[in-house]
Amino acid sequence: MIRRTVLRSAFALAATLLLSATAQAQLFRAYLASDGNDANACTLAAPCRLLPAALTAVASGGEIWMLDSANYNSATVTIGKSVSILAVPGAVGSVVALGGPAISITAAGLTIALRNLVIVPLPASGATFGVYMTGASALTIEGSLIANLPSDGVRAAGTGKVEIANTIIRNNAGYAVWLQNGASADISGTKLLNNDNGVVTFSNTATTTTATVSDTIISGGGTGIYLLTANADGVTRFFVTRCTIQNTNIALDSQTTGAGTALLAVSNSMITNNNFAWSQSGTGSVIRTLGNNHLTDNTTNFGSLTLSPLQ
Q1: How many whole angstroms separate alpha carbon 112 and alpha carbon 110?
Q2: Are 211 and 239 in contact (CB under 8 A)?
Q3: 31 pairs with which residues across the strands?
Q4: Model pTM?
Q5: Which of 140, 205, 248, 296 could form a disulfide with 163 if both were Cys (CB 3.0 to 4.6 A apart)?
Q6: CA nearest neighbour of 219 among 184, 249, 189, 254
Q7: What are phi and psi of 191, to 5 degrees?
Q8: Beta 306-307 vs 154-157: how paired, if at all?
Q9: Are the beta carbons of 34 and 66 closer than 8 angstroms?
């Protein structure tokens, strides 16, 4: 009996040491290069080639650096830990969408940053989204390009949080940014150009979906800003400030179908050269203007604006 106890203790100690060594082996900073190899350790001296290998090697909360210009995936990259992924200045760190989204985030509780990346589709590959998030995590996209996808550039469904700064999202066949059923976003200093539509907040469940867009240009496409609530207890909220919305069919579109709430507030913005400056429909739909916007050279409008004086 004593011998068994000693053996069990020895095995437990060995397992603990093995786990400790594995944890210590994970890197705070993992590296990728066009001439790397996934059999390498993902260090600066021995970089890996593709993102999945680097995601395995890097510790939670660490960084993955792309050292030169190349494509760094061969399938959807599923991110399951907190991490920052960035291309060094001057490099084109490409992540392609093929057979689905380029990047998928399904886990909750993560903090993820994407910086200086180029996210595009591989033609005729079954690509869908640029970044697709269904987990309740926090995602930041900075200084990146998301372009030419057959669906949405960024889609977040659920209670995740998205921050997009100083990024170009262009020529996507869906929405530049789609937010659904509890997702929230803060978009600043960004250009949304010639997408099929701009940004949507959509609730068809008893959730609140929210977006704030500031210092951003939205140009071209069907709808610039779109709110749609299709649930009696659903809420969509959208706040727009210091933005330009131009050359769309409908610049500002707020709708409820049945009950629910859709609140859009606009300040210090230029709404110009659109077919509809605004379209407001549904009993719970409101478009508020603070009276300091410039609405000029638009063809028409539908519904009403609500003036909220400056405080």
Answers
A1: 6
A2: yes
A3: 65
A4: 0.91
A5: 140
A6: 249
A7: -115, 120
A8: unpaired
A9: no
Planar angle of CA 140, 81, 103, nearest 5 degrees: 55
- What would the two tokens of residue 260 be? 């629910």
Q: Reduced to 3 states, what is the DSSP secondary structure of residue 5?
A: helix
C-alpha gyration radius of the chain = 23
Residues 6+ apart with CB under 8 A from 183: 133, 156, 157, 158, 159, 160, 161, 162, 209
Which one, of 6, 71, 60, lies nearest residue 32 by Cα?
A: 71
Chain-centroid distance, C-alpha 105: 10
DSSP conformation letters of 278-305: EEEESTTEEEEE-S--EEES--EEES--
Distances (CA, A) of 122 to 35, 46, 100, 146, 147: 21, 28, 10, 13, 11
Give residue 6's identity as a one-letter amino acid code.
Answer: V
Kindly state the tokens that stand for 238: 């959208």
Task: Give the pLDDT of the chain (311 residues) as one tens digit per residue.
Answer: 444 343 334 434 443 333 333 444 699 999 999 999 999 999 999 999 999 999 999 999 999 999 999 999 999 999 999 999 999 999 999 999 999 999 999 999 999 999 999 999 998 899 999 999 999 999 999 999 999 999 999 999 999 999 999 999 999 999 999 999 999 999 999 999 999 999 999 999 999 999 999 999 999 999 999 999 999 999 999 999 999 999 999 999 999 997 899 999 999 999 999 999 999 999 999 999 998 999 999 999 999 999 987 66
Q: What are phi and psi of 299, to 5 degrees?
A: -75, -45
Q: Which residue bears the tokens 């300091």?
A: 292
Q: Please name the amino acid found at residue 198.
A: G
